[in-house]
């Protein structure tokens, strides 16, 4: 059940991040961006002394969204 929650959470976060950044991507790319963004956001928040993604809640959503938006920005800058 945990993997299914990560996929749903990743899809939701990836979709919102792609809407914010104006990148039209498919569901698979949204899921990948959301999951990797959650990991990246948790890593970023550790530098500020805060926790990462801890479940399906608003704080975790915002951390993952921050990571996904930064990830999209980095990928765009590298292209």
What percent of the residues sit in helical stretches (DSSP H or I)? over 70%
Which consecutive residue ranges, at least 5 long each, have pLDDT under 50? none
Distance between the termini: 36 Å
The proportion of strand residues reads under 5%
Could you explain the architecture of this structure?
By secondary structure, the chain is mainly α. The protein has one domain. It has three helices and no strands. Helix 1 (2-21) crosses helix 3 and helix 2 packs across helix 3. The longest helix has 21 residues, at 27-47. The protein is globular, with a radius of gyration of 12 Å. The termini are far apart.
What topology does this entry show?
Layout lengths: L1 H20 L5 H21 L10 H21 L1
Concise description?
By secondary structure, the chain is mostly helical.
Q: Any key phrases for this structure?
A:
79 residues; mainly alpha; 78% helix; 0% strand
